[in-house]
Amino acid sequence: MKKFFLSLLCLGLIATSCNKNDDDPIIEEEEKEEIEPPVEEEEVVDIEVQNFLWQTLNLYYFWQGEVTDLADDRFDTQAAYEAYLTENDNPVDLLENKLLFSEDRFTFYDENYRELVNSSAGVSKSNGLQFGLSLIGNTDDVFGYVEYIIKNSDAAGKDIKRGDVFIGVNGTRLNRDNYISLLFGDNDTYTLNMAEINNNTISPTDKEVTLNKVEGLVEDPIHVTEIITAGDRKIGYFMYNQFVSGTEDEMNAIFADFKAQNITDLVLDLRYNLGGRGSTAAVLASLIYGTNTNDLFYRTRYNDKLQSQFDSSFTDNYFVGTTGTQDGNSDAALTSLNLPQVYIIATGSSASASELVMVGLEPYINVVHVGTTTIGKNQGSVLFVDDPEGGNVYDPEREDQINPNVQWGLQPIISKVENASGFSDYSEGLNPDIELDEDITNLGILGDANEPLLARAIQEIVGQGAKRNFEVQIPANLISSSKLHNPRNATLLLNNGRMPTGDLLLPKE
């Protein structure tokens, strides 16, 4: 354990003596009790967490060269390094105020790395209600609307559904100042005060819905699949809400069914998908485009220190031919649709791996984006733990090697991504080809041909002859959502197994 010791000096009584003059009479002093010298107390300052954070970011962080305190020559001696960590005895303050780049929006951490592992696998403590939050008119009042319900959750058994609206929690009206504490606080149970919309006006009702958060809720990211006939077109619809490793075999089976039923077009719905595994994104993109394993899907760019260590075999990620073997997949051959065009529904709740699929496919097929501008996350991350011999890279097979005194998980941005054409400039989001907001007054049923965003994609597929009015009464102008509130949801997770090992991580002794 790396510790640093500080000595605290205790204040004691100081005996003073009187000056004596030779002419003064000698006065015999009474015997005084001897005063013990002050005892120095040692306070142990644990810097293991700070050491883990600094070491990891100094090597891997994409903006390492932009952060003064992460410079390789920041400290002249080991003593100076340890003194710095000791002075910054609050790890969170050290990380957020001194080690992270000012423009970094997506690095996150947790004092329990298992929380981050579970999050990437779609496991959370949740009541199963996925909702968006918007302002009421030009006020600071907030209302929520239900986007969808997670299957087999507490909310799935309650009288609440997509399109329902609420304006309060536990009898308190929602506003900009209180919605975080009321909806995202430590309260595992809360009661929603429901509302209704009439003539574009939101009004409270007497209806209440009480919801309970349950530990370990697993969301199936494959939310809806349908085959829709429109005119002479047969359209496959696939709604995918998170890129979770282990779902590749099931996706392959769905696309095999699409192919067996001779679909002519595909609508991929990523409107609420904030990202996930890059390897899963490669499988989905290959199911759409083809298993051309010599075609580049995306390339990763790292900081100067790491980039110099890697060749193209590490940075280049290609389309794939199988589901792989990760997380229980069978390595089955992919049944690709080999489509020349795909329609993708994406919104301000679409990010990272979702954007990667869109950008990665564009050099090869026509990608028609229906919806609104996406979040803009052209960056990748990896989960790190305090395991220096493993390069601090999280490996489920090395959990017994993680420092038992430091259970932190750190997921920093370590790369930027670009497609085969070298395009990576979408930090402001991807703009739609066909712009259409979700309408709070008419969210529709996901997977139904009349749901507005899907209906607009279908209209584009069958031609402009089937013109329909898509006027939006109350657009979904998000200020937050059940997913967006947590920054760890917007992720592009790179393959941990391909990261460098402890040979590159040089822990200070």
TrEMBL record:
It holds the Pfam family Pept_S41_N. It comes from the Bacteria. One of its GO terms (molecular function) is peptidase activity. CDD domains: Peptidase_S41_CPP_like (cd07561). InterPro entries: ClpP/crotonase-like_dom_sf (IPR029045), PDZ (IPR001478), PDZ_sf (IPR036034), Pept_S41_N (IPR041613), Tail-specific_protease (IPR005151). The keyword Protease applies. GO terms for biological process: proteolysis. Residues 120-198 form the PDZ domain. PANTHER family: CARBOXY-TERMINAL PROCESSING PROTEASE CTPA, TAIL-SPECIFIC PROTEASE. This is C-terminal processing protease CtpA/Prc, contains a PDZ domain. It comes from Maribacter sedimenticola.
